[in-house]
Amino acid sequence: MIISGALPLNVQQAVDALCAGELVGLPTETVYGLAADASNASAVAKIFKAKGRPSNHPLIVHVASADAVKKFASDVPVFAQALMAHFWPGPLTLILPRHEHMATAAAGGQNSVGLRCPSHPLAHQVLKACADKGVWGVAAPSANLFGRVSPTSAAHVQSEFGDALLILDGGECEVGIESTIVDCTRGVPVLLRPGHIGRAQIEQACGLKLVSPESLEAEAPRASGTLASHYAPAAKVRLMSPLDWQKALEALGPHTQNLGLWSVQKPSPDLMGGGLFWRAMPGNAKQAAHDVFGVLRDFDARGVRTIWIETPPNTPDWEGVRDRLQRAAA
Ligand code: TXA
Ligand code: MG
User: Fold this and answer.
1) CA of 132 to the centre of ligand 2 (A)
2) In this structure, which CATH number among 3.30.565.10, 3.40.50.11030, 2.30.38.10, 3.40.1410.10 belongs to the domain 236-329?
3) Where does the chain hold its CATH 3.40.50.11030 domain(s)?
4) pLDDT tens digits for 132-166?
5) Which stretch of DSSP H or E encloses residue 115?
6) What pLDDT, in 10s, does the model give residues 253-299?
7) Which residue of 44, 59, 62, 88 sits with most ligand 1 atoms within 8 Å of its CB, as the best mutation to test the pocket?
8) At 271, is the secondary structure helix, strand, or coil?
9) Ligand 1 pocket residue status of 137, Cβ below 6 Å
10) Percent of the chain, pLDDT > 70?
C-alpha cells in the first residue's frame, strides 16, 4: 500500500511498522530502500526473503546522524570521519569495522558494516523517530528483486513487491542511482561502487587517493551491486556508439520490432514509429542518473525485447551511470 509521506500520521505509521519488525518501502535521495530494523534479525531476514537475495550479501544500515555510527562501528579512521563530515547527510556509504554483536544479520556475517546517513527529508524524519524509540539503524537495500533494476518511485516499489508492502511515498528520487560506497576498513579508502559523489570529490575531502578493489591483495567484501551482471531489465541491453546504433537502425529499416533506444540524438523520422521506442538521453550525467532506472523500467513495461543504449562519455562525471549501464548490459 502506498501512503503519502506528506502526512505526519503516515510517517508515524511507517515508523511504527519498522519498530514492530515490519518491512517498509522507504524513499531516499538515491533510490527507494526496502527497510527493516537493522538490529532485529527476524525483520532483516524478511528483507532477504522478499528480495530473493542471498543472506550473505550485506545490507547498508541507515542512520539519522553521524552520532549513531559508534553504535555499529568499532573504529572510525580519521579519513572516514572527514568523509562523513563532508558528505553526510548524503549519497555516500562507508564500510567500517563492525561491533561484534551489532547488526550481525544485516551485515551478512561480515565483520564490517555499511553505514549511510541519507539526506531525503522523509528518510531523515523516519530514522530520527526510529532512533528516538531506540532503533538506531535501519537496514535497507534497494527495493527491487535481487539483480533487477533499482526503484526510483513508490510505484516502482509497488510493482516489485505488490500491495501488501507499506510504501512511504516521497516522490521521485533526486539522484536516481545508488550511493557511492567507500570501504574504510583497509587503512586506505577503497571505492567499491561509483555514484553521484565522484572520485575527485572524495579524494579532495579526505586528502587521500582512492584505491580500486582490484589492486588490493585480499579479496574485497561482497557487494552485490558490484556483481558483473546487475541492474538488469528483462530486455537485453547493448551499449553502442552513436555511429553504431545509427548504422544498425538503418540496416533494420522498417522491420524494427520491440526495440528500445536511449540516445542523445533522435533517430531520423523515417526510422521512428513502428516497433521502435525512443527515449531522449540527457546530455548531462546528473540528469541521466536521475532518469536511467526509470527508462529501463519503462522499456520493460512496453514489452521491448532489446534495448540499445548510447555509450556515455568516458569522463569522470559519467562514472556512476556508466557503471550501472555496463552491469545492465553484462
Ligand atoms: O543508495 C543506496 O545505497 C541504496 C539506498 C536504499 O540507500 N541502498 C542500496 O543497497 O543500494 P543495496 O543493498 O542494494 O546495495 C548495497 C551494497 C551492496 O552491494 C552490498 O553488498 C554493499 O552495499 N555492502 C553493504 N554492507 C557491506 C559490507 N559490510 N561490506 C561490503 N559491502 C557492503
Ligand atoms: Mg541494489
Assistant:
1) 28
2) 3.40.50.11030
3) 236-329
4) 999 999 999 999 999 899 999 999 999 999 999 99
5) strand 112-116
6) 877 889 999 999 999 888 887 799 999 999 999 999 999 999 999 99
7) 59
8) helix
9) no
10) 95
- Residue 49, judged by CB atoms within 10 A of its CB (0-12, 13-18, 19+), counts as exposed
Stated pTM of the model: 0.94
Site to probe by mutation for ligand 1, drawn from 60, 95, 116, 191 as the one with most ligand atoms within 8 Å of Cβ, is 60
Does ligand 1 lie within 6 Å of residue 311's CB atom? no
Ligand 1 probe mutation, 51, 57, 93, 104, most atoms within 8 A of CB: 93
Give residue 139 CA to ligand 1 midpoint distance, Å: 9
Ligand nearest to the CA of 231: 2
Beta carbons of 227 and 260 less than 8 angstroms apart: no
Pocket flag, ligand 1, residue 59 (CB < 6 Å): yes
Average pLDDT for 61-74: 97
CA neighbours within 13 Å on the CB side: how many for 322?
12
Q: What is the pLDDT of residue 196?
A: 97
Which three cell numbers mark 189? 579508502
Cβ burial, residue 190 (10 Å; 0-12/13-18/19+)? buried
CATH architecture for the domain at 2-215 = Alpha-Beta Complex (3.90)
Q: Where in the chain is the domain with CATH 3.90.870.10?
A: 2-215
